[in-house]
Design goal:
InterPro entries: ConA-like_dom_sf, MAM_dom. One of its GO terms (cellular component) is membrane. It comes from Paramuricea clavata. This is Keratin, type II cytoskeletal 1-like. There is one protein chain. It is built from no helices and eight strands. It has one domain: Sandwich (Jelly Rolls). By secondary structure, it is mostly beta strands. A hairpin with a 6-residue loop joins strand 4 and strand 5. The chain has a four-stranded antiparallel β-sheet, with no helix packed on it. Strands 2-7-4-5 form a four-stranded antiparallel β-sheet, with no helix packed on it.
């Protein structure tokens, strides 16, 4: 994901891609690399239902523009999605090499 300019860019990760039908795998870890050149990146866990509720899981901001690694724990259930919201202000927000694993080390 790469976003530049003004405004929000949203990426929704449906957890149906990771979890068996009607499954709940408990807590898992998502790790990825990010580069922020002015702006922010927020990650939310969103309920998969009408009138969805979102819970903030990670907030990142930077202006240096160097690649960094982030990790966050989330509930791996079909009841949820992950929402990554990039908000560039004066530069760009980039995400790469997303990986899901059992625990965050």
């Amino acid at each position: 994901m790469s976003s530049s300019g003004r405004g929000n860019a949203d990426l929704i990760v449906p957890l149906e891609l990771l979890v068996p039908h009607n499954g709940d795998l408990g807590n898992m870890c998502m790790e990825f690399y990010y580069r922020i050149r002015g702006g922010s990146l927020n990650v939310y866990q969103v309920t998969n239902a009408k009138g969805y509720r979102k819970e903030s899981k990670l907030r990142l901001s930077d202006s240096q523009g160097s690649w960094k690694k982030a990790r966050m724990t989330f509930r791996a259930s079909q009841k949820y999605h992950l929402l990554l919201r990039a908000t560039p202000s004066s530069g760009s927000v980039d995400i790469d090499n997303v990986r899901f694993c059992d625990t965050c080390n």
